[in-house]
Fold this sequence. Notes:
Layout (H helix, E strand, L loop, with lengths): L2 E3 L11 E2 L18 H15 L8 E3 L3 E6 L2 E5 L3 E4 L13 E2 L10 E5 L18 H9 L3 E6 L4 E8 L2 E5 L7 E3 L4 E10 L2 E9 L9 H41 L4 H8 L3 H10 L6 H8 L5
Parallel strand pairs: 4-7, 8-9
Antiparallel strand pairs: 1-11, 2-4, 3-6, 4-5, 6-8, 9-10, 10-11, 12-13, 13-14
Helix pairs in contact: 3-5
Amino acid sequence: MTVTSTQREIPKVTLDIQWERLPDNFELPDEPVESTIHPLLAWALKEILSIAGLMTAEMLIGGNLGMCVRVNNKIVLKAPDWFYVPRLNPNLRGKNLKSYTPHTDGDIPAIVMEFLSDTDGGEYSSKSTYPYGKWYFYERILQVPIYVIFDPRDGMLEVHELVEGRYEVQSPDENGRYWFAPLGLYLGVWNGTKDNLTSDWLRWWDESGQMLPWGVERVEQSFQEGIQQGIQQGIQQGEIQGKLSTIERMLNRKIGEIPSDVQSKVNNLSPSALDELSTALFDFANVEDLAEWLAQYEF
């Protein structure tokens, strides 16, 4: 995978960073959702990981949760559209968090994502003064290893990795996907419909190139697998019944009517035992011979 340096001349400034949690009485800004698809994108990414069994109790995965830090004695808060924190402190697991402070509450996010809309494009802002641009915040303050920018309007996907303190844009593989080592998965763009909305979506692929399903897709897969299994079982059962009927006719011709208790044992034979019986019955002279042959099996 090749990389290209992202040329962004950011002036050097002194940053006094303190990893303090928000005060309990801090009023979080109530920002409107920029697009109806943004929360759906975030939820779909998390849903896939959950269904695949890749989420653990120590992880924190979500979207639109404020990442909080105090810089030069001022509170700075940015809420990425999606993020992945590998390890949340045990005392916070399972709790409803209103904000997250890296280092204090757990690991720094390994991945953050921003989804573009018709706003001012702040996702690329390298503003180095308060309240700081998002790019600057993730790169210089939080130092998030992977920063993803995605535009659902045209499917544009950019992946930037932190290299020596600066983001470098990554090149996709031959399938147009990006390898995310923290999750052991590929990320790519897929066009289709979810929740009655047809758009470009972000999807996960495993190392073998299999796309991980959403919940509704997994249900459909299970349904189709169940149908195929039922069909196969029906075919097998039909073959057994056909074989059993043939053997019964041959036995009746060879030794006459078979008592019900003996017939019951014949009916309970395995497919391989029925194959053996279809050959052995030619040596039977009477029902006693059949009963003696059946005695080798436990019923």
